[in-house]
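Practice problem. Given the sequence and the SMILES for magnesium ion, write out the predicted structure.
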Amino acid sequence: MNGQAIEFKRVNKWFGKLHVLRDIDLSIASGEVVVVCGPSGSGKSTLIRCVNVLERIQQGDIVVLGQSVTVPGLNLAKLRTRVGMVFQQFNLFAHMTVLQNIMLAPMRVKRVSRDEAERTARALLERVGIPHRADSYPANLSGGQQQRVAIARALAMQPDVMLFDEPTSALDPEMINEVLEVMTDLARDGMTMMCVTHEMGFARRVAHRVIFMDEGQVIEQSEPEAFFAAPKSDRTKQFLSKILSH
Amino acid sequence: MSLEVITSNFQFLIVQGFFGLGSFAGGTLRLAVPAIVLGFLLGIFVGLARLAAVPWIRIPATIYVEFFRGVPLVMVIFWMWFIIPQLLQIPLPEYGVALTAFVIFEAAYFGEIVRAGVQSVSGGQVEAARALGLTGVQSMAYVILPQALRNMIPALVTQMIVLFKDTSLASIIGYVDLTKAAQIVNNREIKPFELYLFIAVVYWVCTYSMSRLARRMERRPSPV
Ligand SMILES: Nc1ncnc2c1ncn2[C@@H]1O[C@H](COP(=O)(O)OP(=O)(O)OP(=O)(O)O)[C@@H](O)[C@H]1O
Ligand SMILES: [Mg+2]
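Answer key:
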């Protein structure tokens, strides 16, 4: 695929009086991997949550895979089947096994047969490296395993775009890499990815572009090399010096 | 103490008074089981309506709950028994009156339990479901309600036990449940000690089995 996967067009959003997204103009090409970073409260989560319409925007437009999110009567389910999302807190369905978690949406939303859904689910578990935990409940998995299941669950819908909101922030350090490896593989396979993360190693190795946000604005965006070596704005420099010094 | 009064009236007390079998309108179970089932089903709607985003659904549901939680059950039964037939200009049978009163009254309590249960499921679960393309109704059916029901089990069973015992109130409008049956036998044979001890045991065995069953369901590792 080529062309633009996601286009933000002068997007503005408020929570009450709080202006959380300010005049965002941003395009993400098909197959591109973009890392979004910035201080807490800068609007990163809000930005990606607007893409699959977990949040509504008040001004401007976002075109996702050719579909505007502001048209009246938008088919949300259809849009969301094409856009996978992975959350910081995994949000696996606690009352379902790993396999059931992955099979639910393909069966109920896409009306895939049980057999086919199960075959896909098992193949995906293989891909994220935990085929042996198919019948476990989420509570019995480590954080890293849960997040890998969450990725498999999103992939089961065969999305064209994947959104990640701090997928490794809730993990113990020794589990971060197993999740980043899955994400790296996904990127190498050509998935379009928008990742909010502070894993700068991942950004450097995998991202095509790094975006820095502050106070609801995109302050700076460039290729990882340039972004880390020669940040243009002072706020970016400040931010980088803080998180890279850890 | 002799159990003779029980054995000689066993058929009347248990088969008719407790189960409600036979060619007359009565029975504790015949009232309690549909009251619990229908009250709970209506309660699901009431509870979900209490959480609705649109005010014209939420506000009536809230008024409903606050009203019926604020009045005595006996009063609701009397209302149904004396006032509704007058308004409708038709006589209503005891069974219909008692069942309707219980369902309407208990739905308010079940509704509150359902509301709390739904709210106990984290918002992240809903978001994950919606993000996968499930509709609001599908998220409710496959993700929220199964988890909410599980969290609700203790409160739900407590309420079912309360309702089960409260069916004895139906005897005040002449409905022949276990309590009324014991009363009828007692009026004839004057054996209050044996009779009321016996029905206490029957009620207790039922409610205790309900709470044991609930504990088993809670412990069950795999969910609904
Ligand atoms: N549902 C909401 N209602 C009101 N305010 C909100 C809501 N969600 C977020 N906010 C506010 O909007 C601003 C941006 O929040 P957002 O979660 O997008 O930031 P973030 O960059 O993801 O921060 P973090 O790094 O802490 O996750 C914050 O000030 C936050 O308090
Ligand atoms: Mg965030």
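Check your answer against the key. The radius of gyration of chain A is 18 Å.
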